[in-house]
């Protein structure tokens, strides 16, 4: 029998998600597995400092009559599930019992299974269905005039109190702005002045931009910065012609059928571009992770899903690969000084290293202080009334590190994480996306 330490010395292995089997959605089978894994977690407790799922479990055990899992009411199990937002950090960085260890613990995918069971039982709140319908909300809130009304209402205390009461959105949560002039509208008709750049390593020298819901409706300037930076490096950029939400919000809800529908819409579009010689990039780490990890685990026998997995990149991963082969322009015009850089969880678990930091540190007279702590945002967790205060406790160590850095800029690859930090700072200084900073460093127009 292998020991926990022997298991911990091997690289974590993810098993495919058997989400279409009958047992996957069987509540009694689910609770048997929850009990098994929760008891292992209770005996270890290495993950106490990550999200609030683990303190919720451990506190319930410590406050029970037996001081063991058998003294915890089953309702608490669902509380633990609700606090997990599938950041994957416990699996990738903390747990010594992940596969190939014989105990076979995959806490995030167990939480995902529980969320899927809950959704299958019709217990998903209407609010949560709405918040995860990012395409629908973006289209409606992005209508001219409507976007202005929505943005104004989101800044009005009276309107926010009403939103808290009726929908369960916390009045102190920063809500994203909506733009009627989306990234797709801004980039419509855009045509690169360059032919494909020279191939470098796995990169083929021209990229198709998967805009993402957030990048299209909420922060289109990030996509514009990406286009400017890549084309400055003579890498042609085009938008993916048609796309839907990557499916990550619905995955976190447990609505796996909706994830499959999004996959069926997106994968053929991306395959067509890959076959035409385009690499794929997306500016939001969660969206890249969806295609790199979650869809391949949900559809392990789909060759097209695997092909997209092997041809999609984080923007800075792509740029650093170019740099390794001396194909990145390093003639920077403007130093950036000190940058406090929060590394998003969904970027860390991609196992590509700190490529954003590495690229930004190529800029002369620039120091990047990487903060490898969770922001606690998750896209929807931080805006929900029942979880917002907890999310602000999770981000507090990041906020403290940003304050201590006394940096010229603070940044995160995840725009939502950036605004979560902004909410904690309360300084009036907003976050700047790393692509925005790189555009400034190049001295490009519009920076």
TrEMBL record:
<keyword id="KW-0408">Iron</keyword>
<dbReference type="GO" id="GO:0016491">
    <property type="term" value="F:oxidoreductase activity"/>
</dbReference>
<protein>
    <submittedName>
        <fullName>Fe-S oxidoreductase</fullName>
    </submittedName>
</protein>
<feature type="domain" description="Cysteine-rich">
    <location>
        <begin position="339"/>
        <end position="416"/>
    </location>
</feature>
<dbReference type="Pfam" id="PF02754">
    <property type="entry name" value="CCG"/>
</dbReference>
<dbReference type="GO" id="GO:0046872">
    <property type="term" value="F:metal ion binding"/>
</dbReference>
<keyword id="KW-0411">Iron-sulfur</keyword>
<keyword id="KW-0479">Metal-binding</keyword>
<dbReference type="GO" id="GO:0051539">
    <property type="term" value="F:4 iron, 4 sulfur cluster binding"/>
</dbReference>
<keyword id="KW-0677">Repeat</keyword>
<keyword id="KW-0004">4Fe-4S</keyword>
<dbReference type="InterPro" id="IPR004017">
    <property type="entry name" value="Cys_rich_dom"/>
</dbReference>
<feature type="domain" description="Cysteine-rich">
    <location>
        <begin position="207"/>
        <end position="292"/>
    </location>
</feature>
């Amino acid at each position: 029998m292998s020991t926990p330490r022997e298991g911990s010395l091997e690289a974590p292995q993810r098993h495919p998600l058997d989400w279409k089997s009958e047992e996957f959605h069987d509540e009694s089978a689910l609770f048997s597995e929850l009990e098994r894994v929760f008891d292992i977690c209770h005996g270890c407790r290495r993950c106490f400092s990550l999200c609030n799922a683990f303190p919720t479990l451990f506190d319930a055990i410590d406050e029970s009559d037996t001081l063991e899992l058998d003294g915890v009411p089953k309702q608490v199990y669902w509380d633990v599930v609700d606090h997990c937002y599938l950041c994957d950090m416990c699996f990738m960085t903390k747990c010594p019992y992940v596969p190939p260890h014989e105990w076979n613990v995959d806490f995030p995918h167990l939480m995902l299974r529980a969320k899927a069971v809950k959704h299958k039982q019709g217990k998903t709140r209407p609010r949560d269905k709405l918040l995860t319908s990012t395409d629908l909300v973006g289209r409606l809130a992005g209508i001219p005039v409507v976007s202005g009304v929505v943005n104004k209402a989101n800044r009005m205390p009276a309107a926010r109190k009403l939103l808290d009461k009726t929908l369960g959105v916390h009045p102190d949560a920063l809500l994203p702005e909506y733009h009627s002039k989306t990234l797709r509208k801004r980039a419509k008709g855009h045509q690169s002045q360059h032919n494909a750049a020279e191939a470098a390593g796995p990169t083929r020298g021209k990229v198709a931009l998967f805009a993402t819901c957030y990048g299209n409706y909420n922060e289109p300037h990030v996509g514009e910065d990406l286009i400017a930076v890549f084309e400055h490096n003579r890498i042609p950029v085009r938008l993916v012609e048609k796309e839907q939400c990557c499916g990550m919000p619905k995955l976190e809800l447990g609505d796996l059928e909706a994830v499959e529908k999004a996959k069926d819409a997106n994968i053929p579009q991306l395959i067509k571009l890959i076959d035409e010689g385009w690499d794929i990039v997306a500016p939001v780490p969660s969206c890249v992770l969806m295609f790199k990890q979650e869809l391949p685990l949900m559809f392990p026998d789909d060759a097209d899903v695997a092909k997209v997995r092997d041809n999609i990149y984080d923007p800075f991963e792509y740029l650093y690969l170019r740099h390794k082969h001396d194909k990145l322009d390093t003639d920077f015009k403007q130093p950036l000084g000190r940058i406090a850089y929060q590394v998003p969880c969904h970027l860390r678990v991609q196992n590509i290293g700190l490529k954003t930091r590495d690229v930004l540190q190529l800029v002369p007279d620039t120091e990047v202080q990487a903060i490898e702590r969770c922001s606690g945002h998750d896209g929807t967790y931080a805006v929900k009334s029942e979880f917002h205060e907890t999310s602000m406790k999770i981000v507090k160590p990041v906020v403290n590190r940003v304050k201590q850095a006394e940096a010229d800029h603070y940044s995160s690859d995840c725009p939502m994480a950036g605004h979560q930090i902004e909410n904690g700072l309360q300084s009036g200084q907003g976050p700047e996306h790393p692509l925005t900073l790189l555009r400034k460093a190049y001295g490009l127009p519009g920076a």
